[in-house]
Specification:
The protein is α+β, with helices and mostly antiparallel strands. The strands form 3 sheets. It has a 5-stranded antiparallel sheet, with helices on both faces.
Length: 291
């Protein structure tokens, strides 16, 4: 008759094997939970970085827009006061206030891009005054008056009748918009005829009871340079995060207009899994930042 000892030994071995397998399962489960926890922590940290990057880019962009617009339209900014001078400046006169640069013998902004043209009109009128840039195409600057040289060709400044009416209505609506801009100007990015147009404007109430609207139109290239310049800012991200890399190596960034149409991308991001978004105020064009 077989002894019970081998059966008992086999049973104990089986129980030991089951216990070992259970221990392995527990260890694997704990390892998975630990890995998943680390993954969640890493995702949260990346999301925090993305939120900070979007916020930092937004704040830098607000400052760049403020500086650029104030430099060009500051001469007609009377704050809450009224313009009391009986002489109301024409659109072409304001360009004289852009800083002079002897290197090009032209006016050149120090804190932002050059405008495409100045605009001005009395609120309620259906006209549109234009201040053209008389600098040659090869000159990266501004001339408010033609240089008086023989055979000098002025840049073609042409708005069609419908386009002029559209600009007048657009800027008139901005001037009448409530609540008023908190920083004294309005930065406008809008679509027209399948293209993106960029304006900055300022209302100038006069002691006579009327209001003049002054504006600049920027070329789209100027907006691209402005958006790209913010991304290149040395203080956009902490140095410990960037190290020896560039901001573009660390984050993917996209800026769109108020309708969500992309205006600028740092590079073609294949996915936006950990993206953070923020929006500029309407007086700054309502631009949308995704990082």
């Amino acid at each position: 008759m077989p002894s019970g000892r081998p059966r008992s030994a086999i049973l104990w071995l089986q129980l030991l094997l089951v216990a070992s397998m259970a221990s392995v399962v527990v260890i694997l489960g704990e390892a998975y939970r630990a890995a998943r926890s680390s993954e969640v922590v890493a995702e949260r940290a990346s999301a925090d970085y993305a939120n900070f990057a979007a916020w930092s880019y937004r704040e830098h962009l607000l400052m760049r827009i403020r500086d650029a617009v104030d430099e060009l339209l500051g001469p007609v900014n009377h704050g809450d006061g009224l313009h009391i001078n009986p002489s109301i400046p024409d659109a072409h006169e304001i360009g004289h206030y852009i800083p002079w640069d002897a290197r090009c013998n032209c006016h050149r902004p120090r804190r932002g891009p050059s405008p495409l043209r100045y605009l001005g009109f009395r609120l309620g009128a259906d006209t549109l005054g234009i201040g053209p840039n008389y600098a040659a195409d090869s000159v990266d600057g501004w001339l408010a008056d033609p240089p008086g040289m023989p055979h000098y060709t002025v840049r073609v400044i042409a708005y069609g009748r419908d386009e002029s009416r559209w600009i007048n209505q657009l800027l008139s609506g901005v001037a009448r918009r409530q609540p008023r801009s908190s920083w004294g100007y309005d930065f406008v990015v809008v679509r027209y005829d399948s293209s993106t147009r960029v304006f900055a404007s300022r209302s100038m109430p006069t002691v006579r009871g009327d209001t003049f609207v002054y504006a600049v139109e920027y070329p789209m290239s100027a907006l691209n340079n402005l958006l790209g310049g913010v991304l290149s800012s040395n203080d956009l991200l902490p140095s410990s995060l960037v190290a020896a890399r560039t901001n573009s190596d660390v984050i993917d960034l996209e800026v769109g207009d108020g309708a969500g149409v992309p205006l600028f991308r740092s590079r073609a991001a294949p996915r936006w899994d950990l993206a953070a978004t923020t929006t500029l105020p309407s007086s700054y064009g309502g631009l949308r930042v995704r990082a």
